[in-house]
Amino acid sequence: MCINYRALNKVTVKNKYPIPLIADLFDQLGRARYFTKLDLRSGYYQVRIAEGDEPKTTCVTKYGSYEFLVMPFGLTNAPATFCTLMNKIFHPYLDKFVVVYLDDIVIYSNTLKEHVEHLRKVFKILRQNELYVKKEKCSFAKKEVSFLGHRIRDGKLMMDDSKVKAIQEWDPPTKVPQLRSFLGLVNYYRRFIKGYSGRAAPLTDLLKKNKVWEWDERCQQAFEDLKKVVTEELVLALPDHAKVFEVHTDASDFAIGGVLMQERHPIAFESRKLNDAERRYTVQEKEMTAIVHCLRTWRHYLLGWQDFLAEFDYTLEYKPGSANHVADALSRKAELASMTMAKSLIALAHEGKTKRFWVEDDLLHTKGRRLYVPKWGNIRWNLIKECHDTKWAGHPGQRRTRALLELAYYWPQIRDEVEAYVRTCLVCQ
Fold this sequence. Notes:
Blueprint lengths: L5 H5 L11 H7 L5 E6 L19 E3 L2 E3 L11 H12 L8 E4 L2 E6 L2 H17 L10 E4 L1 E4 L2 E4 L2 E4 L1 H8 L7 H13 L7 H9 L12 H14 L5 E2 L8 E6 L3 E8 L2 E9 L9 H15 L1 H4 L3 H4 L23 H6 L1 H11 L7 E3 L2 E4 L3 E3 L6 H10 L9 H9 L2 E2 L3 H10 L6
Parallel strand pairs: 16-17
Antiparallel strand pairs: 1-5, 1-6, 2-3, 4-5, 7-8, 8-9, 9-10, 11-12, 12-13, 14-15, 15-16
Helix pairs in contact: 7-8, 14-15, 14-16
Pfam families: Integrase_H2C2, RT_RNaseH_2, RVT_1
GO molecular function: catalytic activity
InterPro entries: DNA/RNA_pol_sf, Integrase_H2C2, Retrovirus_Pol_polyprotein, Rev_trsase/Diguanyl_cyclase, RT_dom, RT_RNaseH_2
């Protein structure tokens, strides 16, 4: 039951306790490998209304008047009150192995042994505070967790399949409220969508005040484009603050955008439309606007490097698309031998126990006289870059890039790494 408490809410002093940012909660789960999700049974109803305040919640029905003894839905301060309670009781464990969003609780751990101990601590807290979970909606010690419309696994963030299906099956809107609902759902996943503002511009223009509704071909194309890009199931990496962040930006005549990356894996996309004044900027000014906007958006990720960078006298240098030459990188016998798999293959080759690999000029070869490339530093990434980004390569597709690479090189999972690189190439999008 949900009561209309608008009159009560209007005279209520607002509780300003902040609801946690969803993106911050996801970031905490990046390095975990085991997850348990708990859902409180009718969470609000487990919070007692302050004694003496019950009459304020009175509702009138044809069967008589009733007042709540527990916190009902619809009160303006209900979310903040519940959030305050959860943060208070779980305070010792927040940002360590527990994240809470209202009545959703996720316990995360690196190992199963750790996870069992963390669960014991959480259940003890719940027992002490007489809070009860709904068993049917809980999942325990999983390697993948569904949380706030997303799936999280192995440091990767994905869209929830049910939400993707809902977007995919959405019929073209015929009036503003329907369009606003569609854009509201798609906007929730905008961090997955490169150039979202530009893609959605024909649709957001229809939401402007006094704008006459006219669903033309541009609107239909933008609608289908958003549905298509959402269903491509792009996987984002969750940030690791021990690694270096990269910000790639771009600007067009009508919009600016960028992507936050770590080790060539996208973490989030960002974009916005340029206003009328900004559209008259020079190309250089638009590019700088894109940089400033992205730095502001991701400042909570990047400020950690500010003190470190302040120690150096450095300049920002434009880097052209041509790739660095890395042919000499593979001649480093010491680096090759340091890799466990490479050492095992070299040993087998020397002993004549494998026909697939052999050693020649201190380098490991396989069929087609291709060089085996160890996972060392950025060697593999640089080779993919040379076969994709350089002028002679011309930014080909996944198959062509892999074919060029496999003419001279080999390593396990070469197909997956090429696919990941090409899918996140800003030029090819």
